[in-house]
Design goal:
alpha/beta, 384 residues, Aspartate Aminotransferase, domain 2, binds pyridoxal-5'-phosphate, 2 domains, Aspartate Aminotransferase, domain 1, globular, seven-stranded mixed sheet
């Protein structure tokens, strides 16, 4: 059996007619960049996430870069973030001339450790230069938003939520209120890379904010800083969202809740099957009542140096897996000129994590096959 990590074509086949119709309409309209579909999609995402403004841009990396720029972060400033994430979470800081301060992760959730964030905001020798925090809701799991909001208010520090992997995830506050990821930060960013829970058929991204001034900045920055064409108020960039992507994403947004529910179901099947096997060298993702994880990835931890050999074994059995992430950002060659602290939990995670196939159309028999292969691997490993 061949099981891909992610298969975007299965989803396409289910909604092919709708997509082809929408694509044809756009092509016949002659309006290919930032037209009515992009505008409507922006409004629909804003309503879905409970934010005032949603601003479409070319990709999630640009969304982060523009968000950092919008806060006025520049040379000499620090921004706190996690090193256990995709590169763009940190390059948006350095590309704006600022310096990242990498904080370790909570090993249970893989998300930034908010205790350490708070400690830095209290005790860092140059704490007045810490201009922002960029938490990432990794693998679809929301950071404790209630705590994050308290930190944001208590320390008057700006927050950019990197929601590239978490569109639609939420946190349930102690008073019962539900807030979606992306609705708490001064700015938040989304990626619609094709493999994301809400994936385009190409690149696309979005910036979210409740602040009118920040929204205004982002809206003009994405079009070379011009409110009126050919009159440039600021030195912006070209980061426009395609009308074709807007039209396709509007269709997929209608089904997004169904897609999330299917992923959550798949994760629970994996967890149940693994629980019954009681494999002591394998740790499954925990599920909590106070949040909704949308399982952008289903990531297990494989202990005692078994991760790479299990990965190879699964590859030979036709099961595709991935390692998110093999090297922390604090250890990347391009950042060698900075001095970063070692990050014990991040480094251990880089050695232990393994992402298993997950996408809404994955079948129960495919999940069972993946788990069976893993069971066989550990049986064989025990014999050796
Ligand atoms: C956590 C995180 N941040 C940012 C990005 C960047 O998004 P994009 O690929 O759309 O530029 C990604 C995409 O993989 C991501 O996973």
């Amino acid at each position: 059996m061949k099981i891909p990590l992610f298969d975007v074509t299965r989803q396409y086949h289910e909604i092919r007619e709708e997509i082809l119709h929408a694509v044809d309409e756009v092509l016949r309209s002659g309006r290919y960049i930032m037209g009515p579909n992009v505008e409507a999609f922006e409004k629909e995402v804003a309503a879905y996430l409970g934010v005032k403004h949603a601003i479409g841009v070319a990709n999630g990396s640009d969304a982060l870069y523009i968000a950092v720029k919008a806060l006025g972060v520049s040379s000499g400033d620090f921004v706190i973030t996690t090193a256990f994430t995709f590169f763009a979470t940190a390059s948006c800081i350095t590309r704006n001339g600022a310096v990242p301060i990498f904080v370790d992760i909570d090993p249970k959730t893989f998300n930034i450790d908010l205790d350490q964030v708070e400690d830095l905001l209290k005790n860092h020798p140059q704490r007045d230069k810490i201009k922002a925090i960029i938490p990432v809701h990794l693998f679809g799991r929301t950071v404790d938003l209630e705590r994050l909001e308290k930190i944001k208010n208590n320390f008057a520090v700006k927050v950019i939520e990197d929601c590239a992997q978490s569109v639609g995830s939420y946190w349930i506050y102690s008073n019962g209120r539900i807030k979606k990821s992306g609705s708490v930060g001064d700015l938040s960013t989304l990626s619609f890379f094709p493999t994301k829970n809400l994936g385009a058929c190409g690149d696309a991204g979005m910036i979210l904010t409740n602040d009118d001034n920040l929204a205004d900045f982002c809206k003009i920055f994405r079009v070379h800083g011009a409110r009126k064409k050919y009159f440039h108020e600021i030195e912006g960039v070209n980061s426009r969202l395609d009308e074709l992507q807007g039209a396709i994403l509007r269709i997929k947004l209608k089904y997004l809740e169904q897609y999330h529910e299917k992923r959550i179901k798949i994760a629970s099947i994996y967890n149940k099957l693994f629980d019954s096997l009681k494999l002591d060298l394998l740790e499954t993702p925990q599920v909590h009542d106070d949040l909704r994880c949308i399982f952008h990835q289903y990531v297990i931890k494989v202990k005692n140096g078994h991760r790479d050999s299990l990965k190879n074994y699964l590859h030979d059995k036709g099961v595709e897996t991935a390692i998110y992430y093999p090297l922390g950002l604090h250890k990347q060659k391009c950042f060698a000129h900075f001095e970063f602290q070692p990050l014990e939990n991040t480094e251990r995670a880089c050695e232990e994590v393994l992402a298993l196939p997950i996408f809404p159309e994955l079948t129960e028999s495919e999940i069972e096959y993946v788990v069976k292969c893993i069971e066989e691997y550990f049986k064989e490993a025990r014999r050796c």
